[in-house]
Design a protein that fits this description.
Helix content: 40-55%
Oligomer: single chain
Distance between the termini: 50 Å
Order of helices and strands: HHHHH
Shape: elongated
Radius of gyration: 24 Å
Number of helices: 5
Number of strands: 0
Length: 96
């Protein structure tokens, strides 16, 4: 027998308690599924997101004067699926 086989086992908890807020959040997320059609309709109805969609399809202005659009304007190349060097990136595969 070697020394490691005689070491006491570390105490391992039988179960780990999960805060109720986490359980509730996970349960709510499972019920909050949206279809792509619902997301598209909600995007068209939202004043900011509808502008982001339109600018993505038709082109962005040269500068952004709208504070609500600024976060999207700052990331416009990424939203188009391009990096700052204009190399195409896939935004549907969940990667970066």
């Amino acid at each position: 027998m070697d020394a490691l086989s005689r070491l006491p086992l570390a105490e391992v908890p039988i179960c780990t308690m999960v805060p109720a807020e986490v359980v509730l959040m996970v349960e709510e997320l499972q019920d909050a599924s949206l279809t792509s059609s619902q997301i598209a309709a909600l995007t068209r109805q939202d004043p900011v997101m509808s502008k982001v969609l339109r600018y993505g399809l038709e082109g962005w202005p040269t500068d952004c004067g709208d504070d609500e659009l600024k976060p999207y304007w700052n990331k416009k190349l990424e939203l188009l699926g391009k990096s700052s060097s204009d190399s195409p990136k896939c935004k549907t595969d969940g990667a970066g």
